[in-house]
Amino acid sequence: MNLEKMFEMQKALDERIIKEKGLEGQDLLPNTYVALDTELAEFANEGRWFKHWSKNQKPRTKIEHFCPTCNGTGDENYQMNLDSLLEGRGAEPYSKCQDCNGSGKIGESNPLLTEFVDCLHFFLSIAINKGWEDAMNLPEEAFSEMKKNGFEGGLSGVFLEMKWMLFNSYMSKDQSTKKTSFMMAWGLFLSIGTIGFGFTLEQIEAAYMEKNAVNHQRQQEGY
């Protein structure tokens, strides 16, 4: 995972947002921590592992997206036929939708991975803000014991430990403790994604690049 490239991309996005939203000179770190905490909750919601009250505890890793042109029917004349039906007129013959090649679908996405990289955006932003980029460069050996022994306390235990470390990186009075806590929070977060849900570093990087482009597009559209 090319963290150096991701830092460059995140810095460019953050600087664009600050400039276009007129946020120069403001301390945005508290907002960034709140944003990360919010995205972590959304990630957990897609992960579903903690929902002991539900019969469905499988993570949401696949959503099919239906073609808006034919409303998932594969028929290019769908809207015309719907209007005809409402007006009491005859229907047009089936015509294969060109936008989806008649499949009714235009692709699929992984909601869990999407939320994971949303969190990643804010981890990067915090590291850039604090000058903690090196704290995110973790050696492979850092994950070897966890890979071997599994998560103590299960996913929920690791998730709560990660959140505690994250908040400690903001609330602690000691600067070295802040950075160490952030490093540990990041390591646990990455472990949850790679060990807990099987994401590869290549998948994470590719998903980050894709979502970063979407975030730039949103800024361009006045998000």
Can you describe this structure?
It is a single chain. This protein is globular. The protein is built from eight helices and two strands; from the N terminus they run H-H-E-H-E-H-H-H-H-H. Strands 1-2 form a two-stranded antiparallel ribbon. Helices cover 61% and strands 4% of the residues. By secondary structure, the chain is mainly α. It has two domains: 3-62 and 110-220, all-alpha NTP pyrophosphatase fold (Orthogonal Bundle); 64-107, no CATH class. The mean pLDDT is 90.
What percentage of the residues does DSSP assign to strands (E)?
under 5%
Calculate the terminal CA-CA distance, rounded to whole Å: 29 Å
Overall body shape: globular
- The value of Rg in angstroms is 22 Å
Classify the helix fraction into a percent range. 55-70%
Index terms:
two-stranded antiparallel ribbon; 223 residues; 8 helices; all-alpha NTP pyrophosphatase fold; single chain; mainly alpha; 2 domains
Question: How are the SSEs ordered, and which strands pair?
Answer:
Elements lengths: L2 H18 L8 H19 L15 E4 L11 H9 L18 E5 L1 H20 L10 H9 L4 H18 L3 H22 L4 H20 L3
Antiparallel strand pairs: 1-2
Helix pairs in contact: 1-4, 1-8, 2-4, 4-8, 6-7
